Amino acid sequence: MTVGMRRRAAVLISGRGSNMAALVAAARDPDYPVEFALVVSNRARAPGLALAESLGVPTAVVEHRLFKGDRAAHETAIDAALRAADVEIVCLAGYLRLLTPLLVERWAGRMLNIHPSLLPAFPGLDTHARALAAGVRLHGCTVHLVTQAMDEGPILAQAAVPVLAGDTEGALAARVLVQEHQLYPLALRLFASGQAGEAPPAEAALCNPLPPGAAVP
Ligand code: GRF
Fold first, then answer.
1. Average pLDDT over residues 182-197
2. What is the pTM for the complete model shown?
């Protein structure tokens, strides 16, 4: 695939932006089917904004607080920024606002999200603490299409990690995050190269084996 055929995408963030950085890093490969035209944050103080700028990706801030609770107006402004950047695909990466039908419907089938659990287990917040409390032996992350029902859209790819004896929430989150940074670029590549709507290919499942010498609960 040539550079000229790459599909333009944006990333929506609210904070750290490590998944955004992983996506942008993947797109440095000229054969990657996506280029990143914009990073949008709903928070001016999101550390991911400076990170995006350091990676050479244009940024926009659409502060939700300035819209004083008018979610439709906030999303209309985000949508305008996405259209102005002429993007075709939107990647949510730690974007911490619930979406209304306005944005979900306008980007239906073209908006992806990464969630830190093996969906449909543990939708919503605090996924790592809930996985520990539930005593699951496998945890992980999921890239899925965004639909109005939170964390319920069609699954594009998943990565599994073991839950180890003595794990803390932080240790488990860090283990999952390593996989997130591999999975999101992989899922976007599969999606953007036209395999959406088909059964997920075998490579859409990543598995993080037990590290050597790990204590198995
Ligand atoms: C990630 O764990 C992602 O799965 C979740 O929010 C976190 C964002 O981290 N949706 P970052 O901003 O990408 O570093």
1. 88
2. 0.94
Is residue 17 within 6 Å of ligand 1 at its C-beta? yes
User: For this structure, is 144 an active site residue?
Assistant: no
Cβ neighbours of residue 129 closer than 8 Å, sequence gap 6 or more: 169
Does the CB atom of residue 143 touch ligand 1 within 6 A? no
pLDDT confidence tier of residue 217, bands split at 50, 70 and 90: low
pLDDT at residue 2, rounded to an integer: 46
Instruction: State whether the beta carbon of 140 lies less than 6 angstroms from ligand 1.
Output: no
Residue 162 above 50 pLDDT? yes
Strand-by-strand arrangement of the 59-61 sheet:
59-61, 34-41, 7-13, 89-92, 111-115, 138-145, 155-162, 205-207
Q: Is 19 in the pocket of ligand 1 (CB under 6 A)?
A: yes
**Cβ neighbour number for residue 100 with a 10 Å cutoff:** 13
Distances (CA, A) of 177 to 94, 115, 134: 12, 10, 20
pLDDT at 215: 62
- Give pLDDT, residue 210: 73
Query: Can you give the pLDDT at residue 199?
Result: 75
Residue at 49: amino acid letter: L
2 Cα–ligand 1 center, Å: 30
For residue 18, the ligand 1 atom closest to its alpha carbon is: 14
At 180 the three-state DSSP class reads helix
- Asked if 198 and 35 count as a contact pair (C-beta separation under 8 A), the reply is no
